[in-house]
Amino acid sequence: MAELSEAGAAKLSNVVPTKYWHEMNDSRIQCDVCPRFCKLNEGQRGMCFVRAREDNQIVLTTYGRSSGFCVDPIEKKPLNHFLPGTPVLSFGTAGCNLACRFCQNWDISKSRETDTLADAASPEKIARVARDLGCRAVAFTYNDPTIFIEYAIDTAQACHEAGIKTVAVTAGYICPEPREEFYRYIDAANVDLKGFTERFYHNICAGRLEPVLDTLVYLKKETDVWFEITTLLIPGENDSDAELEEMTQWVVEHVGPDAPWHFTAFHPDYKMLDLPPTAAATLSRARRIAVKNGVRYAYTGNVHDEEGGSTYCHQCGAKLIGRDWYVLSEWNLTESGLCAFCGAACPGVFEAEPGTWGARRLPVWLRDFA
């Protein structure tokens, strides 16, 4: 556990108490937000770095502070069946409760400097700015909202009061009780299923597979949250035919065929600089295996592949939504979300017309807004 120095403690602002923890018999306090169960002495931080023990309780040290805000296309989260073509105001904080060696947001998720949290904003201001910018949703992303759950929930409530939907981009590594509270305020999620072996989660992510699978089943069976799945395929680590077969079969059996699945390309980053980028052919192979095993909406990502990025009717095969990167090129859904050719339903959250945001990415400083 990281020690919180006196100088560091003095610099902290926006520290709020939390409720998911309990005292142990040996004078330590256990954090109960995620399955890591960090056990802290006074002045220590958990592995996530943002939850710490102060004054004999666990506090969140980054409430109201962000590593930055940006308006993105919703497809970048990635979500292909949730308000296609619309803009989403995205933000994160610092830290993470996993330790993925391939992390592609490591400058945020592995940050140990609170000075990187340069943009401060209340939940109400975030909701107001999202509305003023024409965003249909706010996304908790860049790092996992599990570790700033108190800030995320308050922001989600403010967003709903302003008519703004909420999106969680998450690894799904969360305990049952906080999970139930968190998803009560979430409209859509993208869950990162990083692999399908305990070896991969243990050696590459310093975590466990089972809690992530539990989250997927929970979302399907216990909530109305629209969710999609992402798997970053890493050459030689989680991209074998055998693992893809087992993983896709499990999802169809336990989650169903309608959860969209994004197979995305790895590029060398953070502590995995010695592997090559994922070949486009690997993503296409994963997509074929998923479709063969019953996944109705399988996509390729981080590569230019209009076929692999488009949505097709599971019944007649017609193209329902054409996508060229993040630009919608075709729209063949009726106002009620049915295939315009055969009338089959396309699962998701759709409106009569798609958004027109396109591929734009607009960095936003909330301090510039009144």
Poorly predicted runs are: 2-12
Strand numbers in spatial order across the main sheet: 18-17-16-15-14-13-11-10-22
What's the β-strand tally? 22
CATH architecture tag of the largest domain: Alpha-Beta Barrel
Q: Looking at this structure, what is the CATH superfamily of the largest domain?
A: Aldolase class I
Strand content: 15-25%
Q: Give the total of domains.
A: 2
Regarding CATH, which class of the largest domain?
A: Alpha Beta
Distance between the termini: 39 Å
Average per-residue pLDDT, rounded, comes to 92
Task: Report the biggest beta sheet as strand number plus sense, adding barrel if it closes.
Answer: 9 strands, mixed
- What is Rg? 20 Å
Topology:
Blueprint: E1 2-3, H1 6-11, E2 16-17, E3 21-23, E4 29-31, E5 39-40, E6 44-45, E7 51-54, E8 57-60, E9 65-66, E10 68-73, E11 87-92, H2 106-109, E12 119-120, H3 123-132, E13 137-140, H4 149-161, E14 165-170, H5 176-183, E15 188-192, H6 198-205, H7 210-222, E16 226-233, H8 241-254, E17 261-265, H9 280-292, E18 298-301, H10 306-309, E19 311-312, E20 319-324, E21 327-331, E22 362-364
Parallel strand pairs: 11-13, 13-14, 14-15, 15-16, 16-17, 17-18
Antiparallel strand pairs: 1-6, 2-8, 3-4, 4-5, 7-8, 9-12, 10-11, 10-22, 19-20, 20-21
